[in-house]
Specification:
mainly alpha, Ferritin, 5 helices, elongated, binds fe (ii) ion, Ferritin-like_SF
Length: 185
């Protein structure tokens, strides 16, 4: 009986140790993803104004302007999450977002301004939103697993804004741009 207890005890210890290791690895992953999205959001505060400048649909411009303001707030939310985990905000270049922004810039360079350009901007912007939705979905899940409730709430708030921005872009595309682009063929 005693022997069994002893073996249960050490098993438990091993499990605890593993759990501890897993959670510190998860925390590292969480921090890395946070640095990635911090870079991405800051890059977007510079990229979205270029999209606004190149867009022609009033509805698209309004939508992008609205999301630009949200994006600035999202930068500060990421900073608050860094604060919660007691780390200094640090941005690490996100190659995926850099690629998506580059793609958007190429589209804007190549298109003639008007409906077709708007359609290109929407397509590029939706790819950006989808990347953000994936990242914030993961981050929020990690925060939950790590027991970081307040961080989870902040990440959830941003996730909802990204989803709404994506939805808005879909609406603009369906309502105005695509119809006009097709009729000009
Ligand atoms: Fe964002
Ligand atoms: Fe966004």
């Amino acid at each position: 009986m005693e022997k069994q207890n002893k073996s249960n005890g050490s098993q438990e210890e091993t499990m605890q140790k593993q759990k501890g290791m897993q959670s510190s690895q998860l925390m590292q992953l969480f921090e890395d993803e946070l640095k990635d999205i911090y870079w991405a959001e800051k890059a977007l505060t510079k990229a979205i104004p270029k999209m606004i400048k190149n867009a022609t649909s009033a509805e698209l411009i309004k939508g992008l302007e609205f999301h630009l303001e949200e994006t600035k707030e999202q930068v500060s939310r990421v900073e608050q999450v860094f604060e919660i985990i007691k780390k200094k905000p640090e941005a690490v270049k996100c190659e995926a977002m850099a690629g998506l922004i580059k793609e958007a810039e190429e589209i804007m360079e190549e298109c003639e301004s008007g409906a077709m350009c708007d359609a290109g901007i929407i397509s590029a912007a939706q790819k950006v939103e989808h990347y953000e939705i994936a990242t914030y979905g993961t981050l929020r899940q990690f925060a939950e697993t790590l027991g970081l409730a307040k961080a989870g709430d902040l990440l959830e708030a941003t996730l909802q804004e990204e989803k709404a921005a994506d939805q808005k872009l879909t609406e603009v595309a369906t309502r105005a741009v695509n119809v006009e682009a097709a009729s000009k063929k």
